[in-house]
Design goal:
The protein is mainly β. It has two domains: 12-318, Tachylectin-2, Chain A (5 Propeller); 340-408, Immunoglobulin-like, CATH 2.60.40.3080. 1% of the residues lie in helices and 45% in strands. It has one helix spanning 129-132, and strands spanning 12-14, 26-29, 35-38, 46-52, 59-65, 78-87, 90-98, 107-113, 121-128, 141-144, 150-154, 160-165, 179-182, 193-200, 203-210, 222-228, 249-252, 258-262, 268-269, 275-283, 286-300, 306-307, 316-318, 340-343, 348-352, 358-365, 370-377, 379-383, 391-397, 402-408. The strands form eight sheets. Strands 18, 19, 20, 21 and 22 form a five-stranded antiparallel β-sheet that branches. Strand 10 and strand 11 (150-154) form a beta hairpin. The radius of gyration is 22 Å and the shape is globular.
């Protein structure tokens, strides 16, 4: 991916990376030194959005919709399984709208924003199940092929389908016909949902999840994969048998600590060339905590098949690596003890510190004269548009640690 972001101190992390109910994650690099993850409605935000510099330390960035802007094309429906993409400079959010049991009334909608954290403007439904002729039309997946063509894939245990989109990504291309890439029928043990498509080398990889997602301690969710040399299939397993008639390859299943791991995000490649996958799962010791966020490295064998070490969620692993960056000539310090001062926008900074710890901050001119300051807890937005043009130093820390950074006032 080659993006530039900073890590929060230390070389390892422990799973889960966020003990918050964040089902069905989708992730994107925002172009502002943050990754953003989007998840199914969790009762607090309409599609919650969290952000991270390193895929490990996540904090709330907002929600995609408010009560006033929330989509309504399925009466009483929840917003499920969001899929984020960037198309023609816009952040495009695909989402499923459904309620339990409404397999012919559910559907997929689309919204856009100029910023990864929103707010998003809803453009309404692309289709509902009865219109597209696919039962249980949820779990959207956007994919742009190497020839520039854009596709939407979707489906949940009733077959996985794809269709070409127009250049905007907001509509089905005129004359496009849907095509099927994975099986689906009641009782078929090979059924999947939660599609994610990756092109790597000569292969298209179809990741999905099989089993029951949401039965708490009884959940049987697990991650599977197949591959093809064509975006329209046939997708095959290691025995080169089509998954339309044979099984997928399983790459991640439950452990003693994690129940029902699945619905993986897009794969992110770090600056060492390693691949990483976010997914949800239940903590075995806190089932009531919901489906929380996990991270694991995806490795590749000698025949270019993906796998996860041990086939189960890791407990403690090496962190992804992302290079430090320089933003518009403004020096950014490496994180120390989870302290960071980030130029987050044209006229404001974001100060972040350790969880549940207070910090102090201060702004000084180059003569050392105090300009303003205060205290914060975990995060603070520091607006600098009221400062005179010039160069300033921002100090931040606590009794144990102090960091500083030069700030160039942006006109």
């Amino acid at each position: 991916m080659g993006v530039y972001a900073q890590t929060s101190g230390g070389d390892t992390y422990t799973n889960p990376v966020k003990t918050k109910n964040l089902p069905d994650p989708s992730v994107i690099y925002g172009g502002d030194h943050y990754f953003y993850v989007y998840a199914t409605d969790n009762g607090e935000q309409s599609i919650p959005i969290y952000k991270s510099k390193d895929l490990v330390y996540w904090r709330l960035a907002g929600g995609a919709f408010t009560d006033k802007t929330r989509p309504t094309f399925v009466e009483g429906g929840g917003l499920w399984a969001p899929e984020i993409a960037k198309i023609n400079g816009k952040f495009v959010l695909y989402y499923a709208m459904s309620k339990w049991g409404g397999e012919w009334d559910c559907g997929i909608g689309v919204a856009t924003s100029d910023r990864p954290q929103g707010p998003f403007t809803d453009h309404g439904k692309l289709f509902i199940s009865s219109e597209i002729g696919v039962k249980n039309s949820i779990d959207p997946c956007h994919f742009t092929d190497t020839d520039g063509k854009q596709y939407l894939f979707w489906g949940s245990f009733r077959g996985i389908y794809g269709i070409e989109l127009d250049e905007s990504g907001l509509k089905i291309k005129e004359g496009a016909e849907k095509f099927q890439i994975a099986p689906g029928s009641d009782g078929n043990v090979n059924n999947i949902e939660a599609t994610m498509i990756l092109k790597k080398g000569k292969y298209y990889y179809l990741f999905g999840s099989s089993g029951t997602c949401c039965d708490g301690a009884n959940s049987t969710y697990h991650v599977v994969v197949a591959r093809s040399t064509s975006i329209k299939g046939p997708f095959v397993n290691k025995s080169k048998r089509s998954v339309m008639v044979s099984h997928f390859e399983t790459i991640l299943t439950k452990s003693d600590d994690v129940v029902g791991p699945g619905h993986n995000s897009e794969l992110i490649q770090d600056d060492n060339g390693d691949w990483w996958m976010l997914y949800h799962g239940f903590q075995a010791n806190d089932i009531d905590g919901g489906r929380v966020l996990y991270l694991d490295q995806v490795k590749w064998d000698s025949d270019d098949w993906p796998y996860i070490e041990g086939g189960i969620p890791s407990k403690k692993s090496r962190k992804p690596y992302f290079k430090d960056y320089v933003f518009n000539g403004i020096e950014n310090l490496s994180s120390k003890g989870d302290f960071e001062i980030l130029q987050a926008g044209h006229n404001y900074l974001q100060l972040s510190g350790p969880k549940r710890k207070r910090f102090t901050w201060g702004v000084y001119d180059l003569s050392g004269k105090y300009v303003e300051g205060g205290t914060g807890s975990e995060t603070k937005d520091l607006w600098i548009n009221d400062l005179a043009n010039g160069v300033y130093v921002v100090n931040m820390g606590n009794e144990a640690l102090r960091v500083q950074r030069k700030v160039i006032k942006v006109d």
